[in-house]
Design a protein that fits this description.
alpha+beta; Beta Polymerase, domain 2; 2 domains; five-stranded mixed β-sheet; 9 helices; 5 strands; 53% helix
């Protein structure tokens, strides 16, 4: 980043985490915190152009790998977003040993594709065409503890790590429901925080949607658990 070194970006991340977690100890001063926020905001802005380029490239890959979308006259299902400043702070707080300069999802691009076959084709093209970092995070068959399922790939564009998310419609529907419910009720469900029964509701919902997509008939234990959690969490959805 022009005028700011990688080490200064990481120091800003440490300062932000220390300030948020300070509990009676001296910790960073307000001026130090303000400077760290300024560095973080400037760093965040540098992701805009690499993210735009990644989104354009992903749209091209989707149309090339999935010509059926074009043949059906559908829009290319690609969106992009910069992680909000408060979300960056929350993530630094959740992972205090991580480095701000290495955060892989400040810039994000997402494609919602028709099925797993399309996801696999696009992922293969990304691996060939773009420089990727680390291991592909595949939670489609074995979800995150929250129930989240998707395929995540970190690509390097203009020196910035951009997260590419590939989802099927069911996976996207689940993620949107979690986010909207969390926003409505004031819980950070996306980060795995909130009432245990509500988190269990979405975990089981993810399992049920996955089973349905794979043609798997849920066993009686799952059906009993789903009926019970559906009954005990009904009040959240009546608010």
């Amino acid at each position: 980043m022009p005028g700011v070194s990688r080490s200064e970006i990481d120091r800003a991340g440490v300062t932000l985490t220390s300030y948020v977690n300070a509990s009676g100890d001296p910790g960073p001063t307000w001026d130090e915190f303000s400077h760290a926020v300024d560095v973080m905001i400037k760093f965040r802005k540098t992701f805009q152009t690499p993210m735009n380029k990644t989104a354009m490239g992903l749209r091209s890959m989707v149309m090339s790998c999935c010509p059926e979308i074009r043949e059906l006259g559908g829009n290319v299902p690609v969106v992009q977003r910069l992680k909000r400043s408060e979300q960056i702070l929350l993530k630094l707080n959740r992972f205090p040993n991580s480095k701000l300069s290495n955060m892989g999802d400040i810039g994000g691009v997402r494609a919602v594709l028709s099925d797993r076959a399309q996801v696999d084709r696009v992922a293969e093209r990304i691996a060939v065409k773009w420089e990727t970092l680390g291991r592909t995070r595949d939670t489609r068959d074995v979800p995150a503890p929250t129930g989240y399922r998707a395929l995540h790939i970190i690509v390097l564009r203009d020196g910035r790590r951009i997260e590419v998310q590939l989802r099927t419609p069911d996976e996207h529907e689940w993620a949107v429901a979690v986010e909207r419910t969390g926003q409505r009720l004031g819980f950070r469900l996306k980060e795995g925080m909130g009432p245990p029964d509500l988190k269990e509701y979405f975990r089981l919902a993810s399992h049920g949607m996955y089973a349905d997509s794979q043609g798997i008939v849920p066993d009686q234990a799952f059906r009993d658990a789903w009926e019970e959690i559906h009954r005990t969490t009904a009040h959240y959805f009546r608010r």
